[in-house]
Design brief:
- The protein is mainly alpha-helical.
- The protein contains 13 helices and seven strands.
- It has a three-stranded parallel sheet.
- The chain is globular.
- Bound molecules: tryptophanyl-5'AMP.
- Tryptophanyl-5'AMP binds next to strand 1, helix 1 and helix 7.
- One of its GO terms (biological process) is tryptophanyl-tRNA aminoacylation.
- It is found in: Cytoplasm.
Length: 327
């Protein structure tokens, strides 16, 4: 069986972009693969976090994974920081990765520009190497992610190939799995910006845990384009984004939706979209809130997952160490 690896940072509020770009797809494919779904808490530390809040967010992500339908019988669900091999392989890969290629990562450049490059943490710079370690440790074949992770996946492939060339065949060269719909959900209030967990503007995203009235209000207030037509087109970025979300959640295609809403107004379209989103999120939200009432059980589940992950990660770490002369 081929292996799948993916992860989400426990920072900010998980939103419908994370759901349709990642989690929904993980749930859909889980029966076909051996799956590792990680809560990448070490990645979250690359920007300042409040320790108490971080601890709460980690459980929240675990609850959302389970509530969305990931089955712990089929998926190893765990926290990155509970498997020390991630940090250890990162160091080995740091010595294979190049300063120049990390400097060209657009996500780093964007974030560093916001924080000021001088004060950005070294962890933020090194973030893609930790991500490569996550994936290569499990010899994952497939990495289901949103479009914004494409460049990081390319770097992971480069590092795997370079390591294999330098030291002999060691790692599987993984492939990104990026869907056509929902892979790049844009902000509701600014369709030229990616929907982001760390946005200071709650109106820019629908959180997975937003209650139904909040979801309805946010979608009602989402910006639209001039004109009245409901079509996906370059000059209609806002409507294109709403159609993409609608398609990703409902399973209908964009052309089907364009047909369905021909001659209808933005108001009716948004109202229906809100109901489709509410219908998808309500069971997830309710189940997640229920799970969060038993934090002990969530912690136990994560510890059991970490135990399995440690076993699965050991051979690749051992091989990498030995090949580099540390065995
Ligand atoms: P993160 O935590 O920012 O996002 C989690 C997942 O959600 C996807 N995503 C989106 N998809 C569609 N539209 C959006 N607006 C949107 N925003 C986010 C992301 O592409 C991702 O799939 N570096 C990763 C976490 C990571 C990881 C890994 C992923 C660490 N190690 C190993 C895969 C494999 C990140 O920050 O994702």
């Amino acid at each position: 069986r081929q292996r799948v690896f993916s992860g989400i940072q426990p920072s900010g509020n998980l939103h419908i972009g994370n759901y349709v770009g990642a989690i929904k797809n993980w749930v859909a494919i889980q029966e076909r693969y051996e799956n590792y779904f990680c809560i990448v808490d070490l990645h979250a530390l690359t920007v300042p976090q409040d320790p108490k809040e971080l601890r709460r967010k980690i459980r929240e992500v675990a609850a959302i994974y389970l509530a969305s339908g990931l089955d712990p019988e089929r998926c190893v669900i765990f926290r990155q920081s509970q498997v020390s091999a991630h940090a250890e392989l990162t160091w080995l890969l740091n010595c294979v990765a190049r300063f120049g290629e990390l400097s060209r990562m657009t996500q780093f450049k964007d974030k560093a520009r916001k924080e000021g490059t001088e004060s950005a943490s070294v962890g933020l710079f090194d973030y893609p190497v930790l991500m490569a370690a996550d994936i290569l440790l499990y010899n994952a074949h497939l990495v289901p992610v949103g479009d914004d992770q494409r460049q990081h996946l390319e770097l992971t492939r480069t590092l795997a190939r370079r390591f294999n060339n330098l030291y002999g065949e060691t790692f599987v060269v993984p492939e990104a799995m990026i869907l056509k719909t929902g892979a790049r959900v844009m902000a509701l209030d600014a369709p030229d910006e990616k929907m982001s967990k760390s946005s200071p503007r709650p109106a820019s995203y629908v959180a997975i845990l937003d209650d139904p009235d909040t979801v309805r209000r946010k979608i009602r207030r989402a910006v639209t384009d001039s004109g009245t037509e409901i079509v996906a087109r370059e000059d209609k970025p806002a409507i294109t984004n709403l159609l993409d979300i609608y398609a990703a959640i409902s399973g209908k295609t964009v052309p089907e939706l364009e047909e369905q809403y021909r001659g209808k107004g933005y108001g009716e379209f948004k109202k229906d979209l809100a109901e489709v989103v509410v219908e998808a999120l309500t069971p997830i939200r309710e189940r997640a809130l229920e799970l969060l009432e038993s934090p002990r059980e969530l912690e136990d589940l994560l510890e059991a997952g970490a135990e399995r992950a440690r076993k699965a990660a050991a051979p690749a770490l051992h091989a990498a160490r030995a090949k580099m002369g540390l065995g």
